[in-house]
Fold each of these.
Amino acid sequence: MAIRERLSGNEAISYAIKQVNPDVMPAFPITPSTEIPQYVANYIANGEMDTEFIPVESEHSSMSATIGAQAAGARSLTATSSCGLALMWEELYVAASNRLPLALCLVNRALSGPININCDHSDSMGARDTGFIQIYAENNQEVYDNFVQAYRIAEHKDVMLPIMICQDGFITSHAVENIELLEDDKVKNFVGEYNPENYLLNADQPMAMGPYAVSNYYMETKMAQNTAMNNAKQVILDIGKEFGEMSGREYGFFEEYRLEDADYAMVMIGSAAGATKDAIDKLREQGMKVGLLKLRVFRPFPDEEIANALKNCKVVAIMDRSECFRGKGGPLGAEIKAALYDYAKDVKAFNLVYGLGGRDFTVEEAERIYNDLAAYDKDGTAFEEYRYVGLRG
Amino acid sequence: MKNTVEIRWHGRGGQGAKSAALMLADAAFMTGKYVQGFPEYGPERMGAPITAYNRISDTQIRVHSNIYNPDYVVVVDETLLESVDVTKGLNPDGAIVINTTKSVEEVKPFLKEYTGGVYTIDARRISEEALGKYFPNSPMLAAIVAISKVMTKEEFFREMESSYRHKFAKKPEVIDGNLKALHMAYEEVE
């Protein structure tokens, strides 16, 4: 039987970490992820888990130490946010290219400047090309469930890539809400032991880790990483299904909310999906056919699957919670429009940016967007190709 | 139609408004409800105005935005009345409760002709009498439960006693004082 609890997102992922009980966790504090190493350190101090906790002097060091531990053969993880992720930058590529299936608990927060502690996705979106798998959550339940699945995906022999488990800073990380937890033994059985094929501390099989790659070899390494990322798609689906059989909560690449017959749809990532679902229910009562595609997995990018889910929509609003300064839209908009070009050319898509630096996203905002999409479709009311919503009046 | 009660807390950093919102979420959770308790973070520092929120519902809560049209407002520090629009968006069928020594008539000029329920409570006197120290959050918590009736009196005191016994397991001497503060506040506004 599931355990009825109430936890914040940071408490929820820390509880999952305790249940998984990985081998090593180096960490350096940064708002709003600080509570994660704090809670884990408490669990260790109380004897509830035996992970080796390493307090380090920076995020560059926390990722370096996580890489070192994972390379040695230990199941490892760290946690960070925002500028902490930025300081890990070069190490993120090292983790991925060395095919180390470590976990990074990211609590999404805006990057400076101006300095801001609140949520947007500019930190993880900036790291989208590092070679990490990226999985996002709408609420505390999903971030808990995603972490329980993380090592199964990352450590799969066809994948062997690091994984980033993302949640929205403060909105999810610091909001206490109801949650259903799994029993310890269920989680332990699901995750299983880590038995790496190759690792540095294996004296019987000496190996080099992270050597220089001349031009004759470098490109094949990248090709292999890309193959692994493609392989991750099937593994993510398989693990999501197996998790569903255990917990009653199955996961795929995305959640479709009343999307099947929708004329107007939004695509978004993270906590704002909840307000959008409430707006959808209200507008459906008024007879509007509206729906949502809430993207869970951004790396690997399920382009064909997204396009297929959207192909019967008339107009789509792609919601970006980060800016990439190409002048025409954000990263999610660019990738989904590319997918539509390949698989569903007839769908008209606009790109909107919202929620930067913690700007609130409300049910009313979602209703306005759907109404604007309908007005464009029915009356030809102008809709900017790239629009900021929720700006100061 | 509306089965979610929304509450907005106004306090100053360090007074425990966020903790009170989390305690309310905890108690409501224990009575079987779906709950949210969350702070709105600005540049946090002792003494700066802060806002915290509660949603309490019989069904799952999906919205994660701040609360703009609360049913109830709790003002933990009366000096905020001069600088914060505390009744902004407040449901006229709801109520506001303010920690002050002033009477309802004396605070009304600060409430922009709000037509709903207005309650005042002297949380400092209650806290100092019950606890010997000024912690306004316990009396304010009891006051908002008494006014909003998000749970019964019996449920509230049962859950708070259990919560204090857990929270103050190493400081049992403060449990009775906190419970006394809750009872005094509850009965004063009831």
Note: The mean pLDDT of chain A is 97.
Amino acid sequence: MLLEKMKNWFRRHMEEQMAKIDLSNISHTYNPLDPKPTYALNPFSMTWENGKRYAILGPSGCGKTTMLNIVSGLVRPSKGEILFDETPVTDLKTEDRNIAQVFQFPVIYNTMTVYDNLAFPLRCREFTKDKIEERVKAVSDTLNLSSFLNSPARKLTADQKQLISLGRGLVREDVAAVLMDEPLTVIDPDLKFRLRRNLKEINEQYKTTLVYVTHDQNEAMTFAENIIVMDQGEIVQVGLPKDLFEKPKTTFVGYFIGSPAMNIFHSTVSSDHEVKINDTTIKTNSNLGNLKDKNVKLGIRSEFIELAEKEKNNTVKIKLTRVEDFGNFKLLTGKMGNLVIKSKVEREKPIPDGELNLYFPPEKCCVYSDEKLV
Amino acid sequence: MSKLYTFLKYFFITFWTVFVVAPFLWAVSTSFKDFQSVNSKVTYIPWLDFEPTLEGWRVLIKSPAKGGVDIVEPYFNSIFVTCTASLISIVLGTLAAYALSRFTFKAGFVRNNDITFFFISQRIMPPIVLSIPFFIFLSTIGLLDSLLGLVVVYIVLLMPIAVWIMVDFFNRVPKELDETALIDGCNPYQAFYKVVLPNSIPGLIVAGMFCIIFGWIDFFFAFILTFTEVQLLPVKVVALNSSITPWWSLSASALVSVAPLIIVAFIVERYLSKGNLSGALK
């Protein structure tokens, strides 16, 4: 009894500092006994700094959820170590790690009221009554749940239920990190926007580390300070939204981020700084000295392609096939031989019919060799 | 067309109601008759058709020494055996079902589904196949003709039902619920009894209902495994029949034996109509 109390006291005091989370050489397979196991996560190392907002971005089945489950302890990684503030927690059980996790679909305790739902994580950790009341009130105010506190949780609508799940994650102010697995899927767009801002505020106010899994790039871009892009169990790029947009490290990131996707063309290296696409020479700022005869591609964002009055250096001639008006910009689609080029231009700009010249600014051109940025 | 449909609908509902209720009414009326009113001509309504008597009911509680049959003791025996066996089956069955639903078992080629099927297969076998092993088993451990022996046998019979219903139920409870409880700070046992179990009350009620029904109506094993010391209600009711069938006390005892099931049905029905079953899993 006494031992139990001491343990709890100790645990609570340890938990008062939030943690830096280190993932060191983590990899995971779901069929470890197979002679040739397939890896859901390939070996990687990463550090999540305390109090920052991270987004994990990637298509379905790329290992995002596995990564979260490894951090929260629901899944034990096949290899590697997890450290919270330099302390290894790999063998620690979920309930002993100080992590909150919100799933894609609302998980609520049907038999309890909204208040009890929100108070549950605190009760499990034996907080005092006053403290519980204070925290539940604060969280329910933030999430607009105050008026439902005494109604049974199962009577609420799907998005309110998801707010409860979210609230259970946020109610513990001392968590090392709140992990969210596409938490806003079931919530309507208007509320989504407001909630994302709320989460940001919570993060700034309490300095809680937030990790947000999504396959929606806009969500990731507007939410996170750091974005982790994943593909097929591999971490492809970690960086600021700006980096991901302007200098995608692989062609996958170029395709996946941005709307429309990055223009990417097969090309050949013609000199140290120039590539050729369909006999047109494009100058870039990359050093291409030793890339001859390799699988070389040129990538450029449609946002950076400019309309040119006449043919000059670094322009390509295209045949316009389609102009789409998106209200705030126009999207031109054109063909150069068999290559499709998309370009975003200002709405007011007059678009000449038929053939036109597009200018590729050299500093915005990215050259990829074997799908990786040079 | 729709008129015809309405007509047919009400016709069949009425037909079915009569079909179900009439035997009951018949039994109620018969239980108040004496030899004369049963055997002479067909009679229906007390006081008009025949003079009602409580003799049929009185016999049930009179001791055999005074010419009665005394079903009170078998009645309580039945209640004890059914409730104890159901309770133990539900507790063990629920734990087994939770394990089968949440953890992965491997033993040679045996997997979770095989184990579940192994449980259910106990009910696929014809009871007569089980009777001899049970008989030998109980006589070896000296529990033949005892309440405890019957409880043991009934647990074997009822637990497959509990496992079967609860595995299915737990499989439909998302595993994220357990995971959320773990993340919220429960250990696995707390997650089970604080979160998963309260969510499974509808399933427990259904499983409990089936256990009670199957336990209560069993005649076969009660008949084979008991002799003189212990008697269960179904055996006693059948034993009422003699050279002159006492229709009046037979009817009365039949009504008394059905009563607990009717009460269970009413309780469960009330619970179901609250909507607690439907909204639990979304």
Note: The CA atoms of residues 105 and 111 of chain B lie 6 Å apart.
